Recover the amino acids of this structure.
């Protein structure tokens, strides 16, 4: 019924274990769901032995986990595609290794998709480790908000509060309102597998960043993307600007590719 793909590149093992713990708890809400769900971990960092040792206990406890090790780093989207395009499940969860699911997250999400056939993918309400709401649902981006959100100091962000408020659809998120959205974050995308296959998964030309933006726009051609706040996660990740020059390069180059295809918006 459900397949899950997690792409790792030299992950923090303790955080990864927290993610696996949360998956196990969430799947265990339903014995059939636990039995029929499969997890694919794609290793982009050549750490097979470490990952084998990490998942052994979970496999013993009933999780079906398969590890795929790549000789080279395939990038985020191409690595997920190894699991997406070979899946025979009804639903597929694209998940980051630093995301912690609430106990009922999968039950809530799957029940929603079962009841809403016109919806192809859903996004959760997200918190950080300090229980602060993270705005991962978005509208179509423009260059101004991306720059302000990514690299500007807090004082500048306050000056552009209205721009960020609109981009991060805070009117929806802050009111816990189930609503249609334009852009989903790749940290957690619960989708209909047939829809993912119809668009051939992620666009493999993106090595890192903006592949989730592009996928969101392609999925919207097939049905609705919805924000479902009763489905909750904790995301321990951060923004590109905090991860060094190499990540900033990927962010900028992927941004150019995205805007060149879907249209430039400056303000």
């Amino acid at each position: 019924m459900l397949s899950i793909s997690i792409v790792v590149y030299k992950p923090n093992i303790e955080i990864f274990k927290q993610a696996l713990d949360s998956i196990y708890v969430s799947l265990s809400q339903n014995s059939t769901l636990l039995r029929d769900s499969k997890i694919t971990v794609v290793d982009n960092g050549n750490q097979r032995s470490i990952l084998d040792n990490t998942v052994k206990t979970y496999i013993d406890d009933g999780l079906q986990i398969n590890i795929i090790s790549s000789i080279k780093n395939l990038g985020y989207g191409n690595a997920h595609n190894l699991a997406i395009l070979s899946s025979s499940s009804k639903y597929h969860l694209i998940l980051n290794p630093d995301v912690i699911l609430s106990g009922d997250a999968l039950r809530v999400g799957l029940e929603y998709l079962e009841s809403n056939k016109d919806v192809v993918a859903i996004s959760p309400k997200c918190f950080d480790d300090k229980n602060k709401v993270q705005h991962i649902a978005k509208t179509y981006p423009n260059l101004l908000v991306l720059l302000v959100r990514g690299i500007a100091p807090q004082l500048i962000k306050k000056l552009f509060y209205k721009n960020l408020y609109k981009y991060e659809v805070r009117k929806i998120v802050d009111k816990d309102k189930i609503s249609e959205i334009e852009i989903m974050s790749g940290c957690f995308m619960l989708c209909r597998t047939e829809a993912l296959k119809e668009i051939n998964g992620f666009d493999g030309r993106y090595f890192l960043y903006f592949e989730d933006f592009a996928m969101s726009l392609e999925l919207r051609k097939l049905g609705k993307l919805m924000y479902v706040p009763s489905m909750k996660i904790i995301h321990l990740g951060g923004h590109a600007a905090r991860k060094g020059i190499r990540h900033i390069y990927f962010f900028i180059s992927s941004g150019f590719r995205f805007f060149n295809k879907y249209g430039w918006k400056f303000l």
User: Anything to note?
Assistant: The chain has one domain: 2-136+177-238. The mean pLDDT is 93. The radius of gyration is 18 Å.
